[in-house]
Amino acid sequence: MHTGEQYHNFFLTSRRDVAVRSRFQRMAMELLPRGADVLDFGAGTGIDARTYAAHGHRTFVYEPSASMREYLLTYCREELEQRTIVAIDSLRDCKVPAVTANFAVLNHFADHAELFDELSCIVPRGGFVLASMLNPFYLGDARYGWWLANVFHLIRQGHYAIPSESRIHRFTPRVVARAAEPYFQLEQRVPGGFGIATQLYMFLLFRRT
């Protein structure tokens, strides 16, 4: 189990993850209306939140991990004091036009139906949820025994879990899209086409209907 500080330092020094985060942030901010509020769901140590706040978006942060939250309160201290970042204990503590969930936050859920039901209460029609999830089609994982052992489950069920301390789940986009209904519709998946086989993360954009 990583501490908040260890997680923070790793994600700021990993060239691959810095590039992935940059692409996600750019996509999120292109979608956000000027000056719009945003909820950073599973905010980690506040890396994304600080970026959103710096670009004029008041950012609500929800982070259930005590270790991550403790480091976030230090890293984002100035923004928290200025209320450009607002820490919340419940999703119902905000009403926002947009929700972001970066770096596999949604992969910690076995089922997303209840989550999307809750998000539908805070995101108005026309708003969106943008999630970065582990890509189950990434061929770079084919070298691992757990990937080969679960290909059948992926094809048949669209979902499997890897036995581990955190029990990370893998989902096809259609499974997550089904869980999001009837409140959200899957509008976009990045990358598209054959690029889905070469990227560890996929970005899923859900629009509130």
UniProtKB/TrEMBL annotation:
Pfam families: Methyltransf_23. CDD domains: AdoMet_MTases. It comes from the Bacteria. Gene3D superfamilies: Vaccinia Virus protein VP39. This is Methyltransferase domain-containing protein. It comes from Dyella japonica A8.
